[in-house]
Amino acid sequence: MNNLSSIIYTTAMASLGIGLIGCEGRRQVEGTEEITVEANDTRDTAHVVKTGRTAEDELEEFRTWLNRQSEKGDTAIRREWPAVRDELRERNARLEQKFDSLSASSKDEYRNLQDRYNRWEERQERRQLQPLQPAKTMEWQQQLLREYKDLDNVQPQNLREAYLTFMGEVRIKRRNWTQDDWDYVDYVYSKLNQRLREVDSKLRTGDKLKIRTLQAEYLTLEGAADTQSMLRGSSQ
């Protein structure tokens, strides 16, 4: 009986070893490295293939980067602008080189992001030449945020309401705003996002989801306004 148990145990362990080798043959690991294990009769070898970032990876990074930069406060952007501009241009150039390997939907998204990036860069360049007026930024903050104008004191449980107040004003008044007005609106939006980053860990999940929805709506309305502004400029 003992010999039979030993045989069964040995067979089971051998089968388990073969199964593990099969599972390890091709595995995606964190980052973009792909591990390939090659086995032959004489020896086992492990060959690591670094595939590099795909076009889809680059697109995801571009989206994340642009969102992070556009959410920064005006003072931070002004201080970092030359470096930010150069890096954004480099990321854009890398994606252009890989454009043909993107899926159809990703190509559309990239073109939309590219348009947004161009508008954002144009706005930042304009701000370097014509800085926002401090007194006027306070007026716009009062107008768009009302009781939440003092953002440094807005508590986590009230931040969702601050975004709702802001977007309510944007929806109602956006059609009458000039390009210069949108610069001030965007400044207030960046201040809101700055406060969001400060209290993010204290926000409820439901509030985070709602804020993301409101952010997406704002970017859509802002993009539409920029497009209309460019069309008016080209028709003059």
Structure description:
This protein has 236 residues and is mainly alpha-helical. Helix content is 72%, strand content 7%. Strand 1 (26-28) and strand 2 (33-39) form a beta hairpin. Helix 6 packs antiparallel against helix 7. It is globular, with a radius of gyration of 26 Å. The N and C termini lie far apart (97 Å). Residues 7-51 and 230-236 have low confidence and may be disordered.
Helix content: over 70%
- What would you call the structural class? mainly alpha
Note the beta-strand portion. 5-15%
Widest β-sheet, arrangement of strands: 1-2-3
> Which geometry do the CA atoms define?
globular
Strand element count: 3
Runs with pLDDT <50, length 5+? 7-51, 230-236
Using only CA atoms, what is the Rg?
26 Å
Helix count? Answer: 8
Order of helices and strands: HEEEHHHHHHH
